[in-house]
Amino acid sequence: MATTQFPSAAGRTAVAAALAEDASGNDITTAWSVPEDLAATAEVRTRQSGIAAGLPAVAEVFAQVDPEVEIEASVADGARLTDGDVLLRLSGPARSLITGERTALNFLQRLCGIATLTDRYVQAETETRILDTRKTAPGLRALDKYAVAVGGGRNHRLDLAAMVLLKENHIAAAGGVTAAMEAVRRGMARTGQTVEVDVEVQTVAEAAEALDAGARWIMLDNMPLADIEQVVKIRAERADSPRILLEASGTVRLDSVRAIAETGVDLISVGALTHSAPALDLSMLLTTGPAPCPR
Prior knowledge:
The protein is of the alpha/beta class and 295 residues long. The chain has eleven helices and twelve strands. The protein has helices at residues 8-21, 28-33, 55-65, 94-124, 141-150, 168-174, 177-191, 204-212, 225-236, 257-261, 272-275; strands at 39-46, 50-51, 70-73, 80-81, 86-93, 129-131, 164-166, 197-201, 217-221, 245-249, 267-269, 282-286. Helix 8 (204-212) links the parallel strand 8 (197-201) and strand 9. Helix 1 (8-21) packs across helix 3. It is elongated, with a radius of gyration of 23 Å. The protein starts with 7 loop residues before the first helix and ends in a 9-residue tail after the last strand.
């Protein structure tokens, strides 16, 4: 089950933007076809197995569409779902239920999909921590990362201010790994900030240079398994190795994650968790009153 809290402030902002995008205040189809005084109930069901995530986003959608809509959750975020499970039951004005349907499902399908894919990676390799990245949908990062946590993954930095991540372009611009790390140390001394520093490298030589320069967190980007194993061996030869984190990243797939973990790295970051997770197939249909046509 999820141990993180739903990002309520980010959720409110994202929902407001989505409803404005959908012109929910001027739903002419619903206004012209559905009786104003019709009350209805509805159910949200899943059409496939997965992990529930984002139920609070649905509540926020209908809170903004119409506070008269009442919602009863049948499961909690983090629950395992099977085909046909009911996630939510809703009741209230039929117009409000129908107007908010697509926005609610858009959030719920995406977040359930991210949690489900994350769970698959975690189940494929339970000994190594699975991290997300900043490859999230613009404006939805806090929600996307929440869904990763629901699925059993860990969050890497939330934004550019959270920590230092020296990537290849930073290193090239600074004049190399050692120069980039020295520049960061000067920056921290100048500003009085102390943050974690993750250094991205592409070769064994760069990893060794990062270790020599005092790196405590090294990202091994798109490195062959043999090279990763060599870096793990170099770390093991150092007296302070327990304090040095090794992170593998770059085109990590479900069929390769276990082999990567078996090299001995501590962390594996997977961009696909948020940039390529397929939406979970869900439906919301009225259970009293006329049923809406599928969309």
